[in-house]
Amino acid sequence: MHVAIIMDGNGRWAMQRGLPRTAGHAHGAKAVRRAVESAVRHGIQTLTLYAFSSDNWARPRAEVTALMRLFRRYLMAETQLCVERGVRINAIGRRDRLSAALLRVLERSEQLTEHCSKLHLRIAIDYSAQHSILEAARRGPADQRHWRTLLDEVNHSALPAGDVDLLIRTGGEQRLSDFLLWESAYAELYFSESLWPEFDEKGFAAALADYNGRQRRYGALVTEQGGNPR
Ligand code: IPE
Ligand code: IPE
Ligand code: MG
User: pLDDT, tens digit, for every residue of 134-153?
Assistant: First the structure.
């Protein structure tokens, strides 16, 4: 199963407490750790987290810098734990605009967790679904590779991630903000009012329970046995 999360609401969480937005991002990192733990516990195979969209470059420079520093710190602090838990780390998105320091840490985390197979953790940084799709289309005609393979290549996805089964967005907004547009063609959408820093194990379990109660049809009719057509 592939779960994807749009981790939204860090800024509002901080504002509510009279804190700078960056404090919200720092607390958001703790929620990331919880989400990874939940995913492992629930036996999820793939978890894709939206950490920074290509449009987020439009934010104030100080906020962008703080976020990039957080990503680097998170990777440095969590990689060993990921190895122990069998979590394979992989960043998706553009790499050409990341700092050399972040790229170095990122590649190190990817290498150190390469052999891990329990959970595939994909962190979307400088990610834009529209950009990925256009880039794959641009490369596509040159050869006959499968469209999905091309998308995975564009996104530096070390493993084929497959389509999204459950897409969660916290923070109350009900939109996709250019996240995994292709892969979410038949994703079940789940919107939570919780702001990302307060999203916890219970919230994760509630989203999964909601998903488990849904009937996926993929445009077909449900069989008599009640199984999913796909
Ligand atoms: C999501 O939280 C994190 C990133 C986009 C990096 P926001 O920073 O968008 O928080 P809100 O939506 O302003 O509350
Ligand atoms: C989407 O959140 C991006 C991430 C969570 C990383 P935004 O806060 O950037 O999205 P909009 O601006 O509300 O659409
Ligand atoms: Mg937001």
Answer: 999 988 766 667 888 889 99
What is the pLDDT averaged over residues 68-97?
98
Mean model confidence pLDDT for the chain:
95
d(CA 123, CA 4): 10
pLDDT at residue 227 is higher than 70: no
- pLDDT of 20: 98
| Over residues 123-141, mean pLDDT | 93
One-character DSSP codes across the chain: -EEEEE---HHHHHHHTT--HHHHHHHHHHHHHHHHHHHHHTT-SEEEEEEEEGGGGGS-HHHHHHHHHHHHHHHHHHHHHHHHHTEEEEEES--TTS-HHHHHHHHHHHHHTTT--SEEEEEEEEE-HHHHHHHHHHHGGGS---HHHHHHHHTT-SS-----SEEEE-SS----TTSSTTTTTTPEEEE--S-GGG--HHHHHHHHHHHHT----TTS---TT-----
- Please indicate whether residue 56 is annotated as part of the active site: yes
How many angstroms separate the alpha carbon of residue 42 from the centre of ligand 3? 27
Pocket test for ligand 2, best of 5, 7, 8 (most atoms within 8 A of CB): 8
Ligand nearest to the CA of 169: 2
Å from CA of 1 to ligand 2 middle: 24
Q: How confident is the model at residue 30 (pLDDT cuts 50, 70, 90)?
A: very high
Integer Cα distance of 20 and 193 in angstroms:
21
